[in-house]
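User: Here's a structure from my thesis project, written as structure tokens. My advisor, Dr. K., wants to see whether a designed sequence matches the one we expressed. Can you design one independently, without my sequence as a hint?
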């Protein structure tokens, strides 16, 4: 029996009554059979990079800069731990989509009662809005720094970038993936340059990857560490990955499904390694430039931009920093657009034109950004951005627990069910995330 038949006959998914996830691009990219492994990997490469974008968006910048300037290299351990969590969780998300033909939102709708589904849906929508807030603020700051546009105008301009991205989606999914990879490459080159001229201290750098109990004991440090975790392991990325792996036409036989899982692991792990490098580079530049010079109060992207050139001594340092920030914001807009569509359709079966869905989400995100500028001025945006990442972290458990449950259920996954070690690691990660958020709330 083929894997497709197992999905419907044994596992009880309601696939025969639903449209597939992202139906306009479902199975639209062929994976050549009988060719070299490299050719098949290249055909499968792409979804991992779209997911990795969410791990280096403007929200990450805010938390990494704040962590590096205030605590030197100590929070590198938070980036490492979050990245390792991300590798496992995204692998499970991709496996769920490949094996069952369901994205995580559809799977939740099938498995849970209506009140639970509504709760999970609202949580996912909150995560999308929190992510949008960071994208709006990051793009507005980049426009201000590079082109001296007022922040308020920059925030309003970001409402239109979603329409451009949606127009690209109709040109084919490969074009979106190519754009994402190009923007990621821009960030990698820029931060390799920034790190080289920042001249980090290597012994404290390596020591920073070792976890410290001080993170849990210090409320402010824990707040930023959870912000790093929320900015790194994003809830909507779990929904996104389980859907976009299905853009590949990998076949339905067991051997083809098994290979698709391996290829998706390779794709996402490599892409997330790049994302970890970018996050590490941002924190290291902040620590090496600001903390080392005694500027531990640098917490905002604007302050970092203004102080980079005089402290690093390279005229191009600040402009390149701004270009990378703009690239990060635009990349995140891509994935936010897709994730919003997947979450809405998966949980509710309600289909709406993508541009309407995106403009509603972006419009909601603009409101808190505008209020922050009016009430608190420019400094309010930085606080709002970090808060948005903590909100993401607090929504994460509501996506992680169902993901672990589904991929550990033999009735749903068949022979591809999580093994004992994977299951143990998955539940441990889910518990750690929940426990850290409870600690933060208790301290608050």
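Assistant: Designed independently from the structure alone:
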């Amino acid at each position: 029996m083929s894997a497709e038949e197992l999905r419907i006959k044994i596992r009880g998914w309601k696939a025969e009554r639903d449209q597939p996830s992202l139906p306009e691009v479902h199975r639209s990219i062929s994976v050549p059979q009988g060719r070299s492994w490299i050719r098949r990997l290249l055909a499968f490469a792409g979804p991992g990079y779209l997911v990795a974008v969410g791990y280096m968006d403007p929200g990450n910048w805010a938390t990494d800069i704040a962590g590096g300037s205030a605590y030197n290299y100590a929070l590198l351990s938070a980036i490492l731990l979050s990245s390792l969590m991300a590798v496992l969780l995204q692998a499970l998300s991709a496996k769920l989509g490949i094996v069952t033909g369901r994205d995580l939102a559809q799977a939740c709708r099938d498995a849970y009662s209506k009140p639970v589904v509504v709760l999970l849906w609202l949580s996912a929508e909150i995560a999308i809005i929190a992510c949008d807030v960071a994208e709006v603020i990051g793009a507005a700051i980049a426009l201000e720094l590079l082109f001296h546009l007022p922040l308020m105008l920059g925030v309003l301009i970001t409402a239109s970038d979603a329409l451009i991205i949606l127009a690209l989606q109709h040109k084919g999914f490969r074009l979106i993936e190519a754009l994402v990879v190009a923007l990621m490459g821009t960030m990698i080159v820029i931060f390799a340059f920034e790190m080289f001229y920042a001249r980090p201290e290597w012994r404290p750098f390596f020591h920073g990857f070792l976890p410290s109990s001080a993170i849990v004991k210090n409320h402010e440090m824990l707040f930023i560490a959870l912000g790093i975790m929320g900015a790194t392991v994003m809830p909507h990325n779990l929904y996104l990955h389980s859907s976009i792996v299905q853009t590949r036409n990998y076949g339905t036989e067991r051997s083809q499904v098994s290979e698709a899982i391996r290829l998706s692991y390779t794709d996402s792990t490599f892409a997330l390694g790049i994302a970890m490098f970018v996050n590490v580079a941002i924190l290291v530049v902040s620590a090496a430039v600001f903390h080392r010079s005694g500027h531990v109060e640098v917490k905002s992207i604007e302050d970092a931009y203004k102080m980079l050139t005089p402290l690093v001594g390279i005229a191009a340092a600040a402009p390149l920093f701004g270009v990378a920030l703009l690239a990060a914001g635009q990349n995140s807009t891509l994935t936010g657009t897709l994730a919003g569509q997947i979450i809405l359709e998966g949980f509710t079966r309600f289909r709406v034109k993508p541009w309407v869905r995106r403009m509603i989400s972006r419009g909601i995100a603009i409101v808190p950004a505008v209020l922050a500028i009016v009430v608190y001025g420019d400094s309010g945006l930085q606080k709002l951005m970090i808060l948005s990442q903590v909100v993401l972290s607090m929504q994460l458990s509501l996506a992680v627990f169902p993901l672990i449950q589904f991929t550990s259920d033999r009735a749903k996954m068949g022979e591809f069910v999580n093994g004992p070690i994977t299951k143990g690691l998955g539940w441990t990660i889910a518990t750690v995330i929940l426990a850290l958020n409870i600690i933060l709330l208790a301290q608050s």
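When you compare it with your expressed construct, this may help: The longest strand covers residues 29-30.
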